[in-house]
Amino acid sequence: MNETTPARPPVRRFPRREVILFAALLVAVLGVYAIMGVAYSTRMLVEAACYAILALGLTIQWGYAGQFNAGVMGFVALGGFCAMFFSVPVNEAFWDSELPGELGLALLYLVGAGAVVFAATRLDRLGVPKKLRTLIAVVLAVVLYLAVISVLRGVTGEIESRAGFIGGLGLPAWTGWIVGGMLAGGIGYVIGHICLGLRSDYLAIATLGIAEIIKAFLKNSDWLTRGTATVSPLPWPTPGAGDLGFVLSRSLYLSVTAVMIAAIFFLLHRAYHAPWGRMIRAIRDNEVSAAAMGKDINRRRLEIFVLGCVLMGIGGAALTSFNSLFDPQGYLPLNHTFLVLVMVILGGPGNNLGTIFGAVAVYLIWIMSEPLALMLMHLAIGFGEGAFGWEAPGHLESRALQARVFVIGLLISLVLRFAPKGMLPEKVKHHG
Fold it and tell me: What does the angle CA 346 – CA 347 – CA 353 come to, to the nearest 5 degrees?
C-alpha cells in the first residue's frame, strides 16, 4: 500500500519588496512635509488619495480584465458634475419661475423621441425588411432631433438669460459622490454594451472619443454647468478651512479618503481571490477556453467595466469637491487619463496594493517636479551668472512647469524598460 504524504501548507514569504518600496515612499512624503510645509503636503496627499481611487478603477478594468479604457477623463468629469450639482445651493431665480416646467417638458420630449427611435429599430420583428427599418430609424432620429433640440435650445436660452444656470440641489456633498459613481457606472453600462465587443485598440479609441464628447457637453451646457464660467465654491463633506483651519480640515478630508481606499481595497481584494476574480482572470488570459467552460464572457466583461467606471466617478467627485471648483475645461487627458495610466503602469496592473503605491508615488513626482526643476534652474542661473556672466532667461515658472511632462515621460520609459510588469507585479496563484 502506497503511503501518501500530506500536502505541505504554502510557505508565506516576507513581503520584502513591498516593505522597502513603501518605506522609501514614506521617506519621500516626509521629505515633502519638511520642505513644503504641512498644509501644502496634506493637500498633496488628499489629491493623491483621490487619484488612487481612480487608479483602482482603471487597474480592475485593465489589470483584471485586460480592458484598455482611455476615457478615464470622461468618468471623472461625470463624478465632478454630480459633486457640483448635488452640493451647490438651490438657485431660487430658476425654481421660482416657470422655467422648471418648461425644461421638464422639453426633456420629456427628448425621452419620447428616444423611445420612438428605439421602437423603430425593432420594426423588423413585425416583418419590416431590415434595410427599410434602418432607413425609417435614421430619418426619424434626424427629424425628431431637430425638432426637440430647437425646443430645448429655446428653454436653455431663457434659463441662461434669466437665471444664469439651474443651480444645484443643496444636498450634502457625499450624496453627489454616490450619485456620481452611479451615473458613471450607468454611462459605462451603455458604453460597454456598444464598445466591449471591439478589439482592445479600438476600445481605447472609442472610450477616448466618448470622454471628449462628455467634456464638450459639460463645457457647452452653460444652463447646466455654467460652462467656462465655472462653479465655486463647492461644499465639503467635512468641516472646511473656515471652521478648522487649513491643516486640520485637510487632514480630516484625508482621513475620509483613506477610509474609502481601505474599504475599496478590502472589497477588491476579496473579489480578486474569490471564484469571480479567478473567472475574470481566466477570461482575460484565454477567452476561448473560458467560453468553452460555459462562462458568460460578455456579461462578466461588462460587470468589470461598469465597476471600474463607478470607482472613477466616485474618485472624480471626491477630487472635485476637494478642489472646491467645477471647471469643465479643467478635465484634461494628460491630468485625468494619462497620469492615471502611468500610476497603474508603475504600480503594477492587477495589483491593488501596487496601484495605491503607484498613485501616491507618481502624484508626488508630478507635483514636486515643478518646484525642484525651478530650484535647479535658479542654481544653474546663479552659477552661470557668477562664473560666465550668463543672462538669466525669462518665464522660469512656465519652463519649470513643463518639466512635469518630461519627468513623467522619463519615468514611464524607465519603468517599461526595467520593470514592464510594474514595481509590484500581479501575483497569480495557481490552483489545482
Answer: 170
pLDDT digits (tens, 9 = 90+) for 201-244: 778 888 899 999 999 999 999 999 998 888 999 999 999 888 88
With beta carbons less than 8 A apart as the criterion, state whether 17 and 424 touch: yes
Radius of gyration of the chain (CA): 25
Nearest CA to 21 out of 364, 254, 271 is that of: 364
How many Cα atoms are found within 13 Å in the side-chain-facing hemisphere of 416? Answer: 9
**Residue 123 carries which side chain, given as an amino acid letter?**
L
CB neighbour list of residue 42: distance below 8 Å, 6 or more residues apart: 247, 250, 251, 254
pTM for this one?
0.91
Listed in sequence order, the residues at least 6 apart from 95 whose beta carbon sits closer than 8 Å to its beta carbon are: 167
Helices (H), 246-351: 246-273, 275-285, 287-292, 297-323, 333, 339-347
pLDDT digits (tens, 9 = 90+) for 155-197: 999 999 999 899 999 999 999 999 999 999 999 998 888 887 7
Written as nine digits, the cell of 111 is: 425621452
Question: For residues 319, 358, 369 and 317, what is the CA-based torsion angle, rounded to 10 degrees?
Answer: -10
All three cell numbers of 366, joined, read 508630478
The CA distance from 10 to 237, in Å, is 45
- Rounded-to-10 torsion of CA 326, 241, 313, 204: 70
